[in-house]
Design a protein that fits this description.
Radius of gyration: 27 Å
Distance between the termini: 69 Å
Number of helices: 13
Strand order of the largest sheet: 10-9-8-12-13
Number of strands: 36
Shape: globular
Length: 636
């Protein structure tokens, strides 16, 4: 038997160096030089694969990773290669959605084409949507179309420009599958099955996961190691020409347009190429300074929902686009415009409370922190209720900066209202009463988020609801009537999301003092899960940090969990930050609060509710560990 030896230096990230031996009967053998490649090259700066000499393929390295945020996934919208638009939120209304990352060049991905067809045939009638995604940078759309003709699939094929969907989902390999279920939750990621040879498959991972989801059962495997070829994503430096349509539009959609669109609080829109180009100089300076988008927590100190901050790569792309002359590119490949919720995002609330009349916001002056009371007599509760989510609908989004929803059981808010002429009362440094509970709030860009399953913030039967609304001035008189939808927990005996405070009211900041430190601590009395944090200072604060020192930690900080760190405090941009996953903190954990203040006045400054006074508080929302079953799902 005669061999034709052809030495080919294949892409090392896919196969390693290899010999391709061709027999006269055209049977192919791939013989790996195992010592040449022991791991895949970095994807997005991380080692993601190891080479298997036995199987002669790359195997995904499974490490600890945080699942993509469901609210973020629900925003996904894309076009297929036929130009049809798809929105994940709409797809999920009929059933789960399956994304399979594939490639026009990867032999293993090609081999799975028939299996992908059979999966579609088995599950299409049950409401499951399928998409084949091509994310490789060296897979141009022409090659994707040619591959779709050679290996036709009965479901849409997508060119994933700049690897947007791969980055969102954390895809690393072709072939690799992702199953998204109700609410945008990632329910499975990994291999389609356990063997590249279809006649040797013993476990059908993807089919089993889809079957479990359709049957509302737990999936036996939520994550498996994908096997095949590494996905190659470009860094900003590798992108020769940055265009609005292919690279930049997504950044504006995901991080800017919730505020920068008609009728919202931002001064101009960023919903079109023309608008983005017109304000490109301002955009460049603000993103380089990290002033915009206004996300305050530093990276590496807690992982939060609704993070609108830009990554280093996103900033590099934006700046490169501007420096190259703001090219539009092919408008037909631009992603579909996002659809922002009108009305109640999660259906009709269980209770709607509203300001009883319009409030007039004057054209000039300082920002207005106005408080409006919904009296307990109007709430007419027969018992305490547990609020799993609030949906705030500002009456005039161009002037409403943020809204916080509180419960007052002292009657003090009513007294303050009676003393202040006009509707409501103004209080800038605080509410003026002892807060029984904070039910939630709203700021531009925030999505409605539910408490963990079976939990809620208690709305006491004998309490008034107080809406604190922060108003901007726009240069003209504006009117607002904000309303709030309350969603109650539906379980028979809901548990309370409780509040703990790391607080220090006993300090005095000397006149002229910079970087004056104030600290506080709170020791947890039992095992808890921490669901959110809300740091709070006034206008002299410059930095604020919360850490959890676990039992047995030493003074040098061993066994500490960083919770949040805001390095450039801005009183106008404070908020409540909800973790992507609740953080377990055992009994005896000490929550440590560290603050810095600059007092540039000529007099000492102490604790107080006026904005000219100061505060140092870390609000902690916790649930008892013994009460939680580990589910993070809507209680609707």
């Amino acid at each position: 038997m005669r061999f034709l030896l052809d030495l080919q230096l294949e892409n090392r990230r896919r196969f390693g160096y290899s010999f391709l031996l061709m027999l006269k009967n055209k049977t192919l053998f791939l013989i790996s030089l195992g010592s040449c490649l022991v791991s895949g090259l970095p994807v997005n700066g991380e080692e993601t694969h190891e080479f298997s000499p036995r199987d002669r393929v790359l195997v995904e390295t499974l490490g600890e990773s945080t699942a993509p945020d469901a609210q973020t996934l629900l925003k996904i919208a894309f076009n297929d290669i036929e130009g049809k638009s798809h929105r994940l939120a709409s797809l999920l209304e009929t059933g789960p959605t399956v994304f399979v990352f594939t490639s026009s060049e990867c032999p293993m991905a090609r081999r799975y084409s028939m299996r992908m067809k059979r999966l579609f045939e088995d599950f299409e009638a049950k409401g499951v949507s399928f998409f084949a995604l091509h994310s490789n940078a060296d897979d141009p759309v022409e090659a994707v179309r040619e591959h779709a003709r050679e290996f036709p699939l009965p479901f849409p094929v997508v060119k994933d420009y700049h690897g947007y969907l791969a980055r969102r989902l954390g895809a690393t390999t072709t072939p690799q599958a992702f199953v998204i279920g109700q609410g945008g939750h990632l329910l499975y990621r990994g291999a389609l099955d356990d063997n590249r040879y279809e006649n040797q498959v013993t476990t059908h991972y993807l089919a089993d996961a889809i079957t479990a989801v359709l049957g509302k059962q737990e999936t036996a495997n939520t994550k498996t190691a994908a096997v095949g070829c590494a996905i190659h994503l470009q860094t900003p430096d590798e992108v020769e020409q940055v265009t609005y349509s292919e690279h930049v539009a997504r950044i504006f959609q995901d991080n800017c347009q919730s505020c920068h669109r008609a009728g919202e609080v931002a001064p101009f829109g960023l919903t079109s190429f023309k608008k983005a180009r017109a304000y490109s100089k301002e955009i460049r300076e603000h993103v380089l300074a990290r002033n915009m988008p206004p996300w305050k927590p530093a990276h590496g100190f807690g992982e939060f929902q609704d993070d609108t901050s830009l990554s280093d790569d996103e900033i590099s792309l934006l700046v490169k686009w501007i420096d190259q002359g703001t090219a539009q590119g092919d408008p037909t490949v631009a992603p579909p415009a996002p659809q922002f919720a009108e009305g109640w995002e999660h259906g009709e609330p269980d209770m709607v409370v509203s300001m009883s009349e319009d409030y007039s916001v004057g054209p000039e002056g300082e920002d207005d922190y106005r408080h409006f009371i919904i009296r307990k007599e109007d709430l007419n509760l027969s018992e305490d209720r547990y609020v799993s989510a609030v949906d705030v609908q500002p009456g005039n989004r161009s002037v409403v900066h943020h809204v916080l929803v509180y419960v007052d059981r002292t009657g003090k808010a009513r007294e303050l209202d009676a003393q202040d002429p006009g509707y409501g009362y103004t209080r800038a440094g605080g509410t003026g009463f002892k807060i029984d509970n904070g039910l939630g709030g709203w700021a531009p860009g925030a999505r409605v988020s539910f408490q963990p399953h079976g939990f809620g913030k208690r709305l006491a039967q004998d309490g008034d609801i107080v809406l604190q609304v922060h108003y901007y001035r726009t240069g003209r008189t504006e009117m607002d009537r904000t309303k709030v939808g309350l969603y109650f927990s539906k379980v028979q005996r809901p548990k309370a999301v409780e509040t703990r405070l790391a607080i220090n009211p006993l300090f005095s900041i000397p006149p002229g003092e910079r970087d004056f430190p104030v600290s506080a601590s709170y020791q947890l009395e039992q095992d808890f899960y921490l669901t959110s944090v809300a740091p709070h200072m006034h206008q002299m604060g410059t930095r604020i940090k919360l850490d959890a020192q676990l039992p047995g930690s030493n003074q040098h900080g061993a066994s500490e969990i960083p919770l949040i760190y805001i390095k450039d405090w801005d009183f106008a941009w404070q908020g409540t930050y909800r973790f992507k996953q609740p953080v377990f903190l055992p009994k005896g954990t000490v929550i440590k609060l560290s603050c810095l203040f600059d007092n540039l006045t000529d007099h000492p400054v102490t604790w107080g509710e006026k904005t000219s006074d100061e505060m140092a508080i870390g609000f902690l929302s916790v649930i008892k560990a013994e009460d939680w079953d580990g589910k993070i799902v809507s209680t609707r």
